[in-house]
Amino acid sequence: MRASRFDPGACARLIVKIGSSLLVEPGGAPRRVWLGTLLDDVCERRTRGQEIVLVSSGAIALGARALGLAGGGRASLEDAQAAAAVGQIRLARLYEEMLEARGLRAAQILLTHGDLDDPDRARNAAATLDRLLALGAVPVLNENDSVATAEISFGDNDRLAAHVAQTARAGAILLLSDVDGLFTADPGVDSAATLIEEVSGPDPGLAARADTHSGSGLGTGGMRAKLIAAQMAMAAGTDLAIISGRHDHPLRRFAETGRGTVFLRHRAEAAA
Fold this sequence. Notes:
It is built from 11 helices and 8 strands. By secondary structure, it is of the alpha/beta class. The chain has a single domain, classed as 3-Layer(aba) Sandwich (Carbamate kinase). Helix 3 crosses helix 4. The longest helix is centred in the first third of the chain and has 24 residues. The C terminus is likely disordered.
């Protein structure tokens, strides 16, 4: 990856999306140690003046454990919505506790795509984000799964991150994944699969190489949802990277290694 063409540390405002499989153990307990390393990275970036917005999954997985629901709370739409209602409180409390331990204030915003598709509601959301960031808070956004329907089955927090980036005028998006990025084939099946380091334009063949399922069973959408988010971001003029969140300090690791798949927005100078 050419770090000179994509440096998420250089933008004033960064969106970081965290999936359920990274945040929650298969048994439903939060991965506090790992989350602590991520929030340490956030704290470092905040000290350097960068504004961070977190888009976090995990409410359904946390709520399913509390309610004793099978299948990670996804056996039915009704189970998922009930789990989200209970789990969202736990998710907010988790971020509040761990951010406060680092001297940061957490703020919760629940959104649906309908909120961001409506111009008036989108402006209100943008104004709220601007004010929270100006006050030094770390906004933690999630899909409002207690009232969402199709979004639950699709895995919409990837698209939500791309949509929020447009609304919040963010410079870049990092999607933390359980793999290093997009590969030429499934690396778990094909030992010859190689990491695609950079995508700089439309590639209809990318979607055909993406899975549609979450490997952990805790989340939904898989790589296909991330590719749709990447296409949205590129079209809107926002850089996006899919990187591994399986390691401690994932933001620091990406800054040091550049390992991941970067989707570059169209740049006028490239066309000149």
